[in-house]
Amino acid sequence: MNILDLSPDQNPQLAEIKVDSHRAYHGSFLQVEKDTVKLPDGNLVTREYIKHPGAVVILPLFDDGSVLMERQFRYPLNQVFLEFPAGKIDPNEDSLVCAKRELKEETGYTADHWEFVCTIHNAIAYADEHLDIYLARGLVAGDAKLDDEEFLETFTAPVSDVLAWVRAGKITDVKTVIGAFWLDKILKQEWQL
C-alpha cells in the first residue's frame, strides 16, 4: 500500500459512498448539504457539511522582508483578527485572478511577481472549502476598493513579529498561521516554490 495514494478508489477500506443527498440550507454565500452515506462496514450514517466556493490567501512580501497584514472583525467569533489578505473565489474565476483582485480591493496594492505556494483545506470535517495560497512580491501601493460591507485596517510587520504573534496565540487564524510558516521557510531558503 502506498500511504500517499489518497484516492477513494485506492482506499475502499476507508471510503464512504454517497447514497442520498439533499440541500439542508441554501444561503447567499454558503450551502449546507445533508447526505446519507454507506460506511466501509455497510452501515448507513448521515453527513452534514458546508459547500464553499473556495478562497485565496495572499502573502504580500515587501523587499525589506516585512509583510502586509490586515486587522479585521470576524462576526462568528466576535473579535478582531490579524490576517493575511484573503477572499472568496467568484464562480468560474481563476484563483490567481482572484488573488490579484483581492489584494487590490482590500489593500490597494498590486504585485509584479506572483508564485503559487500551496492549497490548504481548513475545515475537512465539516466543509469542502479550499484555500489557494500565493506569494506576492514587487508590491506597489495604490487605492483600496473595499466591498460595501467590508471594514479592515492594513499594517506592515516583520515576518519575525508575525511568527512571534503565532507563538503567543495572538494570531490564531489558520490561513495566516500556515502562511507565516511558509514565509519563514521560504525566507530561510529551506523550501523552494
Automatic annotation (TrEMBL):
Top-level division of the source organism's lineage: Bacteria
Protein name (record): GDP-mannose pyrophosphatase
Family named by the database record: Belongs to the Nudix hydrolase family. NudK subfamily.
Reaction it catalyzes: GDP-alpha-D-mannose + H2O = alpha-D-mannose 1-phosphate + GMP + 2 H(+)
Names of required cofactors: Mg(2+)
InterPro entries reported in the protein's UniProt record: NUDIX_hydrolase-like_dom_sf (IPR015797), NUDIX_hydrolase_CS (IPR020084), NUDIX_hydrolase_dom (IPR000086)
Keywords (A to Z) from UniProt: Hydrolase
Gene Ontology molecular function: any one: hydrolase activity
Organism of origin: Undibacterium fentianense
SUPFAM superfamilies the record matches: Nudix
Cellular component, GO annotation: cytosol
Source taxonomy: Bacteria, Pseudomonadati, Pseudomonadota, Betaproteobacteria, Burkholderiales
Domain Nudix hydrolase: 50-179
Entry-linked Gene3D superfamilies: Nucleoside Triphosphate Pyrophosphohydrolase
GO BP: nucleoside phosphate metabolic process; ribose phosphate metabolic process
UniProt entry tagged with the keyword Hydrolase: yes
